[in-house]
Amino acid sequence: MNQPLVEIRTSPHIHSSPTVAQIMRNVTYALMPLVAFAVFQFGISALALIVTVVTATLLTESLFAKLSGRENTIFDSSAAITGLLLALTLPPGFPLWMGAVAGFIAIALGKTLFGGIGFNLFNPALIGRAFVQAAFPVAITTWSPAFAPGRFVEFIPSTLTMPLMRPADLTPWIEKINASAGNAVDAFSGATPLAAWKFDGIATDSMDLLTGMVTGSSGETSALLILLCGGYLVLRKMMNWRIPATVLAGAFITALLLFLFDSEAYPDPLFVLFSGGLMLGAIFMASDMVGSPVTPLGVLIYGLLIGFFTVIIRTFGGLPEGVMYAILLGNALTPLIESVTQPRVYGDKQKKGNSA
Amino acid sequence: MMGLFQSLFTKTFAHGIHPPTSKGQTHQLPIRRMPFSDLITVPLSQHFGAPSKPLVHKGQEVVRGEPIAEADGFMSVPMHAPVTGVVVGVELTPTAKGPKTEAIIIKTHPSASQKVMYGSEYDWQNANAEDLIHEIQNTGMVGLGGAGFPSHVKMQVPEDHQIDTLVINGCECEPYLTTDHRLMLEMTDSLLLGIRIALKICGAKKAIIGIEDNKMDAVAAIRERLDKSDPISVGVVKTKYPQGSEKLLITALLGREVPSGGLPFQVGVVVNNVATLAQLGELIPERQGLIERVVTIAGPGVAKPGNYMVPLGTPLRFALEHAGYFGDASRLVLGGPMMGNTAASLDVPITKPVSGILVLEPTESNSEQQKIYPCIHCSHCLEACPVNLNPSQLGRLAAKREYEVMASQYHLNDCFECGSCSYVCPSNIPLVQYFRIAKSVNRERSS
Ligand code: SF4
Ligand code: SF4
């Protein structure tokens, strides 16, 4: 027998799947139905926006990889996920050039500065979102109607705004649609269900929120679809279900307490759960494991806090939507939460509780 | 439905993992004898503790079973000749772990009968504990489950401690390995005899054999031989890795937690492996020494996988050829795939703690499966760690070389290197390897 090549390795000699690359790939798959629905609902404008943002994140990722001499991580899909998530949180008629800026910032500021995947403290997509929220306050709150006729052949007027230009005012376009549509589309007020509630006290039917027959950001409108896509990842053991579950629980409990306190002034908890970006945020962004704690108790606290802050910001803050800031806050608190929730080690003298 | 019902009530510990058991290749195969190789190498340090001192010299004839090295103090064991032959040297030879150690090399007599001529009858029933412990040391027995800890030391209970339960470890939770399974089926009487000897030594009132629920035939074989009044019973535990870790087995069977850094006797328990006790059951009444052991040879790279009774000191190469090793490039693992070591060469001998030889497919280099990413905080490792550590945090500290913080604040020393965290980590972080390095650096610093 010849001396074969014997490999020297340390134990364990077997490994379970999935690997990070597989997880990332599956998250992109899970986001595809949301992309498809956004395009179905808002037409080519949404498609163009998503393509633009994802291209921006991917280009930024390879640019920084080249600059820093690091291996190009573009194929681990994490930049694509950031781009997709970011695009899905933007209004469908968001000017493309602003979308590109958001994508650039998300990777440049949110990810690369921290040293790449795994080192970022905050969810990069939310960093990008928060940046454009501050930089383009008007554009980011300009909504366009869902299921507008001609959405597959015609861009929303603001979409093709030239870089550094103000986007066109959507009012005339919306009026035209409202007039021509007759009863096909309910008269569109330009407000999302959340804003309608916050500023005008108009409640939207929970069923419409569930199915996505409302307006809002490209990919946030159908709570049901988001739930299904998240469910796929949970089933494949690629997502820690405890995070979305606790975020939603935190939001529900907070909203319920407020509602019980004064059902006139505060929305009903189901409306809270299914409206705005909460579902997308809870399932796809808070659960981005990188910015969340690893300890079991920590996960519980983290999720509940995000849910709680979402409702508090929505209710008492100046903005209709709070989930984004709530998650960033949760990300920021993660190191602290982790340090006080270390698990009790087997055989440790201390009874229960923290041993850190 | 039955399975679900059963699993709800089967005892186990918290966390752990479910790797594919991969036992189908060998668990049906009865133990077969492996022939003697021409040369047998008996390293003087196959156990935890002081190396044995040789009793033979070059050119001396030895008979199978004859003592060829004596224990050097209490924390040591003697060695016996695995074959009848002639000593061709006492010299430095390579071992599986790497560094060369001293070994007695015996050239097998081709025509000798290879009958064990050594030994004498021993009335263990009327012996006292001290005597029995001495006799156990004389057999050269060490933990055959893989630890290699001298058995007589393990059975010696400090005087101020009372033992109420003897736990016998028949979990065999490592994938691929089926030696304990076969032993329980084929050497059942010897096993029970060994347990009765151990009961006598530790003074426990009862003995529980912990067996995973994927070996119900072994459970039945043992239960058949026990009546209700017998102090020995079988405790069925869930098939889960690392159920065979002695502390976790105690927790599963008795609900007791061994203190961090402590030993089982502190909660009134002594644990022994089934292979150890089955062998003792054969050796003690005859006053013989340990000269062979059962080894599972398995994995995709062998044509004749099986359970072999292998003379100790048989070269790995000989054993593998006998089992139909193709000789391709592959990974050779001594022990199980979770905690075993890769063998550095084929020229090392099989020693007392080697429970398995696995020929696994070589890892594809550079594939996506191998790439190491930073920790993505998925918390899989926390959910896997059977002693509830935070491997993610420990790994992040290891990357920064903060080894002392790992020990002082994150219980590094409670890690028993079971490999569960590395097994589940989607980022492929070699966590256990980090922890081994951290421990050895800490040990060096403190000494
Ligand atoms: S190797 Fe150590 S840290 Fe990892 S799971 Fe096992 S005991 Fe826990
Ligand atoms: S399993 Fe790996 S990636 Fe996941 S938390 Fe643990 S160390 Fe990090």
From TrEMBL, chain A:
Its main location: membrane. The keyword Lipid biosynthesis does not apply. The modification FMN phosphoryl threonine is found at residue 192. Keywords: Cell inner membrane, Cell membrane, Electron transport, Flavoprotein, FMN, Membrane, Phosphoprotein, Translocase, Transmembrane, Transmembrane helix, Transport. GO terms for biological process: electron transport chain; transmembrane transport. The chain crosses the membrane at residues 34-60, 96-114, 126-148, 209-234, 241-261, 267-287, 299-317. It is a multi-pass membrane protein. Belongs to the NqrB/RnfD family. The complex is composed of six subunits: RnfA, RnfB, RnfC, RnfD, RnfE and RnfG. PANTHER family: ELECTRON TRANSPORT COMPLEX PROTEIN RNFD (PTHR30578), ION-TRANSLOCATING OXIDOREDUCTASE COMPLEX SUBUNIT D (PTHR30578:SF0). HAMAP family: RsxD_RnfD. This is Ion-translocating oxidoreductase complex subunit D. It comes from Candidatus Venteria ishoeyi.
TrEMBL record, chain B:
[4Fe-4S] cluster 1 binds at residues 375, 378, 381, 425. It is a peripheral membrane protein. GO terms for cellular component: plasma membrane. It is found in: Cell inner membrane. Binds 2 [4Fe-4S] clusters per subunit. Its cofactor is [4Fe-4S] cluster. Part of a membrane-bound complex that couples electron transfer with translocation of ions across the membrane. PANTHER family: ION-TRANSLOCATING OXIDOREDUCTASE COMPLEX SUBUNIT C. Belongs to the 4Fe4S bacterial-type ferredoxin family. RnfC subfamily. This is Ion-translocating oxidoreductase complex subunit C.
